Amino acid sequence: MNALLLRQLHQPLEYSDYEVPHPGKNQVLVDLYAAALNHRDVFITQGLYAGIKMPVILGSDGAGEYRGKRVLLYPALEWGDQSAHQGKNFRVLGMPDNGTFAEKICIPRRNLFDMPAHLNWEQGAALPLAGLTAWRALFSRCRVKSGEKVLITGIGGGVALQALQFALAAGAQVAVTSGSEEKLERARALGAHFTANYREEGWDKKLKQEAGGFHVIIDSAAGNGFSALVGLANPGARIGVYGGTLGKVDGFSLQPVFWKQISILGSTMGSPQEFKKMLDFVATHKIVPVVDKIFDLKDGNAALERMEKGEQFGKIVTRIARK
Q1: Which CATH architecture has domain 132-266?
Q2: pLDDT tens for residues 145-169?
């Protein structure tokens, strides 16, 4: 079978023939037709990840077919038996275990879920990791309710866009931030009620004047701008954090956190049970993930380059040819 292999750090992935895997105990062999990229894939190629092993097939998101059924893959292994957090053996597909940038994958049977019928292969592949991450942060951790105001930072990435779509479907009023006016305009077209360009001085004060503060804030950046989010939070607000791309928060004051009784809630991925709930929600509301651009699998390095530049609005997906 054809696959994209990481053989050496800081080098392009190798598109080459790879031995078809053989299912182990409780595993099945799935034919893959589309696979989406995540920033994790870029970070691994740059050596910015713990415990990297090579050669390895990257990729966490996959849509394919098993015994004539269209399936999506739960994008991780061994969540564990606690709903509150993942276990010590939890790991994401695509390193150290081989992932979805290939024509076939061996995976536990319990990782297979029916793909929502209204989605095509590329849209389906765009959903698993981003959708699961957004679902847990919004619903399991922050418990968003209809009528609440939700702020989502860094719109354009897969998780942020899924959070926007989920929050709107749940009946929330949603604001988004970005440093790109083009991305803000596209978010408004998707239904965002308020937008703010964080490159503009005083953006947070202007947004608070327009929206009146937020019950739920979903953030993946952290960094020194995090203090502005606390200022935008209503008393009793919940702030869900699923990443920290801008690093630590310098000079952060806890006084407004405890005075306004704000909850700061970390969130990572989600359980198979949450994955099923997320897929049911997508099917009920006919939500279609935003796909930025589709590449053939053999052009996977061009797809990684686009992600590294941060130009995308939505998920970057690779199409896997069927034989």
Answers
A1: 3-Layer(aba) Sandwich (3.40)
A2: 999 999 999 999 999 999 999 999 9
